[in-house]
Amino acid sequence: MKRLLGVMTLLSAVGVAEAQPQKTQAAPPAQAAQPAAPEAGGLTWTAPKDWEAQPARPMRAATYRIAPAKGDTDSAELAVFYFGPGQGGDVDANVKRWVGQFQKPDGTAVTDKETRTKKETLNGLSITTVDVKGTYTGGGPMMGPSSPKPGSRLLGAIVEGPEGPLFFKLTGSERTVNGAEKGFRKLVESVKKK
To answer: Which residues form the signal peptide (predicted)?
Structure first.
């Protein structure tokens, strides 16, 4: 009996010891998680830090707002479109469509001579870029301005990815797009397979 009481006392003491709060080393502070790179169609890219990512919109993989340049009132916008494998049309048809969204000040169509297009390979990907200026008439209710915008510029890039083309379309006033041109080029150069 004495032996049983001794064991119970010992067990009781162990239970009390376990119930006492234990001093533990503080865990190291959690490192802030880096946001995942945007991706679509098997590709990733890096947008300039000062371009503001916008909420999700129909038909877009991403949308960025670029602050207006000094003297401008409206921001520019980079829309990234991905429609799926085999979707979105061929490169030349899209370049032609984008150029067709611009007019000269007299209302006539912008010509090929007034448009710069370039085909190149970056990070193993075929890329076509386009640069057009004039009055931006847009491409429908979800694709452009509600009224023509004189003095506009479009920088575009069509990247032929492993799961279909990715379309980068930067539009805004010529002055603001001029200021965003280096950032746009860096973004295009950052596009790679994920």
So the answer is: 1-19
